[in-house]
């Protein structure tokens, strides 16, 4: 098995209207790393993430997930790529559409052909990892936003992904739900790429961060070092919350 969960080389992409969003992105993430992807609005973060499972393609460069190239023309390998790259979207309602939580979490593995006790065990394990076993028989739309986000994480974990990609995981969460999700994520034994504008969350969860700006990776290093560099932050329109000092946090584990 490849030691890299993700390897991106020279990724460039323009939308059909001609907007060039990525200008040659190079990025590698080792298995088991937790990395934050930071950057101002319009930097190209979403465009980048949509290339990781082949939703966007057609530019130049390459993306490999655990050594397997993302090739949208190869339907069989794309299926495997979509199992390996688990994307948790910002809005859980984009991810939850079945009558019960259990069916939502079972949907992906069932699609891969899993049935019976094996499927049940997979669903139970995924829900337990996010502390949501007790809502398995409830309707997703009757859960709180924070609960729905956790269930959305479970739907992805049920696929046993190589890399968990989280788009703004802390958005719309109250402080307690935000902290509880951080504890859950820190406990997972999976490679994580987290797109976020929440710099303290990046500092808490991700030892390493990449700053995307103007369609390239403008900086890549220890989260604490990047956040302690006011000139770098200002250059890329990143701002720490009022009163927040990166030195006040222990380094992410
Ligand atoms: N469907 C589209 N068609 C044309 N241009 C697009 C499209 N989607 C995004 N863009 C452009 O591509 C660039 C990168 O946008 P992208 O959404 O990837 O940035 P982002 O870093 O995710 O921003 P945000 O933090 O606001 O989510 C921007 O210039 C944006 O206007």
TrEMBL record:
GO molecular function: ATP binding
Taxonomic placement: Bacteria, Bacillati, Actinomycetota, Actinomycetes, Streptosporangiales
Similarity comment: family membership: Belongs to the ABC transporter superfamily.
Keywords recorded for this protein, A-Z: ATP-binding, Cell membrane, Membrane, Nucleotide-binding, Translocase, Transport
Domain of life: Bacteria
Biological role stated in the UniProt entry: Probably part of an ABC transporter complex. Responsible for energy coupling to the transport system.
Organism in which the protein naturally occurs: Actinocorallia longicatena
Listed SUPFAM superfamilies: P-loop containing nucleoside triphosphate hydrolases (SSF52540)
Protein name: ABC transporter ATP-binding protein
SMART domains cross-referenced by the UniProt entry: AAA
ABC transporter domain span: 6-239
Membrane topology recorded in Swiss-Prot or TrEMBL: Peripheral membrane protein
Annotated compartments: Cell membrane
Keyword ATP-binding (UniProt): yes
InterPro entries registered for this protein in UniProt: AAA+_ATPase, ABC_transporter-like_ATP-bd, ABC_transporter-like_CS, ABC_transpr_CbiO/EcfA_su, Co_trans_ATP-bd, ECF_ABC_transporter_ATP-bd, P-loop_NTPase
């Amino acid at each position: 098995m490849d030691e890299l969960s993700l390897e991106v080389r020279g990724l460039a992409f323009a939308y059909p209207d001609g907007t060039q969003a990525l200008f040659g992105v190079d990025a590698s993430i080792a298995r088991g790393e937790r990395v934050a992807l930071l950057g101002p609005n319009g930097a190209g973060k979403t465009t980048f993430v949509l290339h990781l499972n082949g939703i966007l393609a057609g530019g130049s460069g390459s993306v490999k997930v655990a050594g397997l190239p993302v090739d949208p023309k190869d339907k069989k390998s794309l299926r495997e790529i979509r199992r390996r790259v688990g994307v948790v979207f910002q809005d859980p309602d984009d991810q939850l559409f079945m009558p019960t939580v259990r069916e939502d979490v079972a949907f992906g593995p069932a699609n891969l052909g899993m049935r019976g006790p094996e499927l049940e065990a997979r669903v139970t394990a995924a829900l337990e990892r996010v502390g949501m076993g007790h809502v398995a028989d409830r309707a997703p739309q009757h859960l709180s936003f924070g609960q729905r986000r956790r269930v959305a994480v479970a739907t992805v974990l049920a696929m046993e992904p190589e890399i968990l990609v989280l788009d703004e995981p802390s958005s719309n969460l109250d402080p307690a739900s935000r902290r509880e999700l951080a504890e859950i994520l820190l406990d997972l034994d999976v490679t994580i790429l987290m797109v976020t504008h929440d710099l303290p969350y990046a500092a808490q969860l991700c030892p390493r961060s990449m700053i995307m700006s103007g369609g390239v990776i403008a900086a890549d290093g220890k989260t604490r070092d990047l956040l302690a560099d006011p000139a770098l932050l200002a250059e890329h329109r990143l701002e720490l919350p009022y009163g927040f000092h990166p030195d006040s946090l222990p380094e992410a584990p």
